[in-house]
Amino acid sequence: VGHVLAYTSHVYEFIDVGTGDVLWPWEVEEGRIYQVMLTTGSGLVRYHLGDLVRVEGFFRSLPILRFIGRAYTTDLAGEKLHQTFVLRVFEKVLPGYPGGFSGVFLVPRRDPPHYRLYVDPRLHSSPEKLAEQVERALQENPHYRLARDLRELLPVEAVAVDHLLQRYLAWCLSRGQRMGDVKSMALLQEDPFS
Fold it and tell me: Is the pLDDT of residue 100 over 60?
């Protein structure tokens, strides 16, 4: 499901999203999520790609990587939700969550400020229950919990969308993205269905 690192092309470094440690390819651990930093022979030095990858295993001593999204943050009321945090929330509430697309994603909504959890009901039988679990897990972020306590954010709203992946892909294509450029995300920056 992943790809072996092309180690002869560039110099790669990996930033552990949990600790912030910068590691060489031979230092990464299976199952952990990293941001990728790249140095090329053409002059890019320690360039942050903004990509998040999970180490799925190893081929000999080379990591097998799976792309799981882009690293960015949303902020409606000071909560500063990061893509990696939302990935960990989904891993917690969805046992076996593979990263990338698995029938759910979270979207910030500005009026009134809250997050909407889109759920494919064919893959998850109770969107409302899932939204409650996501809400509890998001409150492990102290900034999110404070915004909720101050009522600056409303609770997570569940919205069931049949064929969620197909509709999301159609939205991406309608905005001029090529199929190969569409990335699966846990946290989107804008609402594809508003």
Answer: no
Torsion (CA) 160, 162, 164, 166 in degrees, nearest 10: -170
CA distance 103 to 13: 31
Pull the structure tokens for residue 42.
Answer: 């053409």
Kindly give, in sequence order, each residue whose CB lies less than 8 Å from that of residue 96, ignoring residues fewer than 6 positions away.
none
Contact 126, 104 (CB under 8 A): no
| Secondary structure of residue 82 in the 3-state scheme | strand
Please, is 35 exposed, middle or buried when counting C-beta atoms within 10 Å of its C-beta (0-12, 13-18, 19+)? buried
pLDDT, average across residues 162-176: 86
Distance of CA 46 to the CA centre of its chain: 22
Averaged pLDDT, 24-37: 89
Output the pTM of the full model: 0.70
User: Regarding beta strands 47-59 and 22-23, do their DSSP bridges make them parallel or antiparallel, or are they unpaired?
Assistant: unpaired
